[in-house]
Specification:
Layout lengths: L2 H31 L4 H6 L1 H11 L14 E4 L5 H11 L38 H15 L5 E6 L6 H12 L5 E7 L12 H11 L2 E6 L3 H13 L5 E6 L23 H29 L2
Helix pairs in contact: 1-3, 1-4, 1-9, 3-4, 3-8, 5-6
The protein binds thiamine diphosphate and magnesium ion.
Magnesium ion binds next to loops.
Length: 295
Amino acid sequence: MQKEELKEELEVLRLQKIAYKIRLLAIQAIYNARSGHPGGALSVADMLSVLYFHKMRVDPQNPRWEGRDRLVLSKGHASAGLYAALALRGFFPVEELMTFRKIGSRLEGHPYITTPGVEVPTGSLAQGLSNAVGIAMAGKMDGAGFRVYAIISDGELEEGATWEASLFAKTHRLSNLTILVDFNGLQLDGKLSIDLAGASMAWRDLGLRVMEIDGHDVKALVRALDEAEQEKEVPTAIFAHTIKGKGVSYMEGNDFYHGNPPESQEKYELAIKELQEKIKQIDMETSRIEGGETP
Ligand SMILES: Cc1ncc(C[n+]2csc(CCOP(=O)(O)OP(=O)(O)O)c2C)c(N)n1
Ligand SMILES: [Mg+2]
């Protein structure tokens, strides 16, 4: 492998490992609270890893730094994933995750602005995109260089507010906005009723740039986000195909785990074991590549 390729491979492994750490911490926080939403937190872990550890300019020491890129997690119920990413990035101590959903904690069930790194309170679905559009508009009016990212759920495509916000974003040529759709095909208790072709056509017709990728492929995520940043005319919407519950075998594609923690100590331990195993495999692959490089 050439030096550049090696560097890229190692970066991919680093981001994959962080995504699994996010999953691990999210499951620990949710099980400790005996409540939360594991499915949709696990499906966005790769996006969060790429955004917070590769793409976004943020300063954990100064969360309100004016020049920061902004992320709005519109699907606020995936808060455990967001908190895990923010903690790993250094916005607050990782140990604080064990206060998730406890009375008096800064880490509420749905994100609130008292948590360092959280931009917008979310949880009421389909409102986050409008907030992100407003922030992007303000950035454009100020001539500020920051980018705005909105992670929305596929369920939010069924809500009119998403389309109103999209129309506004296109009208005002908010190319500083990237929408990531966590396209996991499931909602609270069943399948999505809107199809990707329809949503994709609607966005294309509105004039947005539309992409479709594997939302667990960190390389594809990096490429898509880079491309979105190059776009100077219109907002970009990225359909990221994901699996709800990704990384824990018994949660994958199972809507029971939309809003239920592992229901027993055995199930919890199995989830942890599987996620730790993944991290071990990534470590081994990293050592293999690093070892190969050493003369
Ligand atoms: C306006 C609104 N209606 C209902 C809910 C309750 N609710 C929470 S999550 C959810 C659906 C989850 O499916 P999806 O939106 O696709 O999210 P994901 O699959 O990413 O978890 C619903 C209906 C809500 N939070 N907000
Ligand atoms: Mg969904």
